[in-house]
Specification:
Layout: H1 2-16, H2 25-33, E1 38-41, H3 50-58, E2 62-66, H4 70-82, E3 87-90, H5 96-107, E4 113-116, H6 118-121, H7 126-131, E5 135-140, H8 162-166, E6 172-176, H9 181-191, E7 197-200, E8 208-214, H10 218-228, E9 233-237, H11 241-253, E10 258-261, H12 267-278, E11 284-287, E12 300-305, H13 312-319, E13 329-335, H14 337-348, H15 353-370, H16 376-383, H17 396-399, E14 404-406, H18 408-420, H19 427-435, H20 440-445, H21 461-473, E15 477-480, E16 486-489, H22 491-497, E17 504-506, H23 508-516, H24 531-551, H25 555-558, H26 561-570, H27 575-579, H28 586-608
Parallel strand pairs: 1-6, 1-7, 2-4, 2-5, 3-4, 5-6, 8-13, 9-11, 9-12, 10-11, 12-13
Antiparallel strand pairs: 14-17, 15-16
Bound molecules: adenosine-5'-diphosphate (ADP) and zinc ion.
């Protein structure tokens, strides 16, 4: 075993330029090289690809990677080729000549890695063709696509058990960033894995701070956040195309280099926005979920969710795009019941009752996170079956623990209004009634005649919304999604109304404090790089852009941000020192070493003179 391990470390260094493995990578690689099946769960950015790419380099013959996302396939293959590794992909985007070339390379055994789309794999005769090749490993990427209940179900994935049937001796490694317990067992069953080992790496990303803010007055809160991150890059996820466009233009209005990104943008424009963001020409992207897949940008300093996502998996994947460099990054979720209602509205239209149930259960878990009065990280990690010993100290609840007070009388006022309206009030109208506001609907329906009209005038509308949300969380009232979202009193609510049960509430001050004074955890504050190395970094980035343009490749194929940063810190003086930079393997050292060493020497000379 020891011999194998030294050998794979050597492969990691030579081909990928990395000096050590990330947690679990080595264990997975050893297991796969022993010819066994594996399921790998790692958060986005955890380093899943190397779990099959290193074995591919260690084994003779071919590794076949099944991947559902055409764009990702191309990125991965380009990155491999950038490291001098013979790799190719087969999917619907290729023309005839390109296909022919790849088939030729396959026949001659010239490729180490072949990426295929699932459709492609099942196309007439393709599996027969694989029979004739020396396939040594199958990797199934984004393996959660096998689950019919997930948001990214791919029917072809269900047929992938054919791999184990036709190639029983070839190990299969399934990888995903999003899998709860059920999905995990679906992966094992549907792929027909033989006695697989399931590797679960920690999903914890301690450098990401977590916070939830009320959905009221988001724009003011966003301006405050922008103030904290002037000149830094971030993503704002919205649930509609219209809001991405509106928000981007508002941000531009206050002088921020912002743009929007959504599925209806034409492909050229989309890739321009993406490139400009990667290169730091754009600072803030307002996007629908279509943005961020496979983007390798390490210095995203904040991810904001303008709306509530529908699932914890999706949410976790999106915030995972922040702080990939390991430095502190901020994540903020705006929470409003209007968003819950939007999700419920879609859920109600689902016909399959089992599917509907799953969707609602997933939304409930997301709400649980948003409404938490305990450490939010604990909730996130428990979703991925990971338990934490203590509160994280880097979420808003840990930093500003809730202050409770006796809210029995407040609850009774609200519940009484609910009952007196014969349960015909929606949340916003209930606030109007309690505040004594003569809104359109109040006048229309005559709610001003209710005895409790104006009984809560001494409490602000903001505070009432915070309280009513808590009444819902405490199970005193329910939202009737199928009856115009009207509020209904529950048994527990009746007990409160009759004075049989006290109600403890979190004060709105707690929430205000979290909104206004986000605190940084001291041990996560890192020194900014010195101005001199910032200059060098800028020079290295410029050089990378020139080279990338010449090669007609995306910049990160030359070197990633993390590699350039390491280079700016290490300031190598010769090719041996250059090889020590993280992310510089043999191939790139010989291809780009000279140019980068020259740039570093020039910048050093400039500083000395
Ligand atoms: P995932 O597929 O899990 O989201 P990737 O495989 O794309 O993650 O890896 C994320 C980033 O981390 C990539 O830029 C990759 O090159 C880098 N990476 C992976 N493993 C290592 C390692 N052992 N050392 C340094 N960087 C690594
Ligand atoms: Zn916490």
């Amino acid at each position: 075993m020891e011999i194998v391990s030294t050998h794979i470390l050597d492969l990691l260094e030579r081909h990928f330029g990395y000096k050590s493995f990330r947690p679990l990578q080595q264990e997975v690689i050893d297991h796969v090289l022993a010819g066994r099946d594996a399921v790998v769960l790692m958060p986005t950015g955890g380093g899943k690809s190397l779990c099959y790419q290193v074995p591919a380099m260690a084994l003779d013959g071919l590794t076949v990677v099944v991947s559902p996302l055409i764009a990702l396939m191309k990125d991965q293959v380009q990155a491999l080729q950038g490291n001098g590794i013979p790799a190719a992909f087969l999917n619907s985007s290729l023309d005839f000549a390109e296909e022919r070339l790849i088939h030729q390379q396959l026949r001659h055994g010239e490729l180490k890695l072949l990426y295929v789309s699932p459709e492609r794999l099942f196309q007439q005769g393709f599996l027969d063709q694989l029979d004739d090749m020396d396939v040594r490993l199958f990797a199934v990427d984004e393996a959660h696509c096998i689950s019919s209940w997930g948001h990214s179900f791919r029917p072809e994935y269900k047929q992938l058990n054919v791999l184990k049937k036709r190639f029983p001796a070839v190990p299969v490694i399934a990888l995903t960033a999003t899998a709860d317990r059920t999905v995990r067992s679906e992966i094992v069953t549907h792929l027909g894995l033989h006695d697989p080992r399931v590797f679960i790496s920690s999903f914890d990303r301690p450098n990401l701070s977590l916070a939830v803010l009320p959905g009221q007055d988001r724009w003011k809160a966003i301006q405050r956040i922008m103030g904290r991150h002037a000149g830094k890059c971030g993503i704002i996820y919205c649930n509609s195309r219209a809001s991405t466009e509106k928000l981007a233009s508002k941000l531009q209005g206050i002088g921020i280099r912002a743009a929007y990104y959504h599925a209806k943008l034409d492909p050229l424009e989309r890739s321009k926005v993406q490139d400009d963001f990667i290169q730091g020409k754009l600072h803030v992207i307002c996007a629908t979920i279509a943005f961020g897949m496979g983007i390798d940008k390490s210095d995203v300093r904040f991810v904001i969710h303008y709306n509530l996502p529908g699932t914890v998996e999706g949410y976790y994947q999106e915030i995972g795009r922040a702080g990939r460099d390991g430095k502190p990054a901020e994540t903020i979720l705006f929470y409003s019941y209007a968003d819950v209602q939007t999700h419920m509205h879609f859920a109600e239209e689902i016909e399959d009752p089992r599917y509907k149930e799953v969707i609602i259960a997933k939304l409930d878990r997301m709400k649980e996170y948003a409404e938490a009065q305990v450490c939010r990280r604990t909730i996130l990690l428990s979703y991925f079956s990971e338990s934490t010993a203590e509160p994280c100290g880097n979420c808003d609840v840990c930093k500003d623990p809730p202050k409770f007070f006796d809210g029995t009388v407040l609850a009774q006022k609200a519940l009484s209004a609910v009952v007196r309206s014969r349960e015909q009030l929606s949340m916003s109208v209930l606030v109007d009634v309690l505040k004594g506001t003569r809104s359109h609907e109040v006048n229309d329906k005559g709610w001003d005649r209710i005895k409790t009209f104006g009984a809560g005038n001494d409490v602000s509308a903001f505070a009432w919304i915070m309280f009513i949300q808590q009444f819902i969380q405490l199970g005193l009232i329910e939202i009737a999604y199928i009856d115009h979202y009207h509020l209904k009193i529950t048994r527990a609510g009746e007990a409160v109304l009759q004075g049989e049960r006290p109600v403890r509430l979190v004060s709105p001050e707690t929430i205000k404090e979290r909104q206004e004074r986000p605190k940084l955890r001291k041990d996560l504050v890192v020194a900014e790089p010195s101005p001199a190395s910032m200059d060098l970094l800028a020079a290295l980035k410029a050089l990378r852009r020139t080279i990338a343009t010449d090669l007609k490749k995306p910049a990160y194929i030359v070197f990633s941000d993390a590699t350039l940063l390491d280079m700016a810190e290490k300031k190598p003086r010769n090719i041996y020192e250059f090889r020590l930079v993280n992310g510089v393997g043999d191939h790139k050292a010989s291809q780009f070493g000279k140019a980068f060493l020259k740039a570093i020497a020039e910048s050093e000379a400039g500083n000395a003179g």
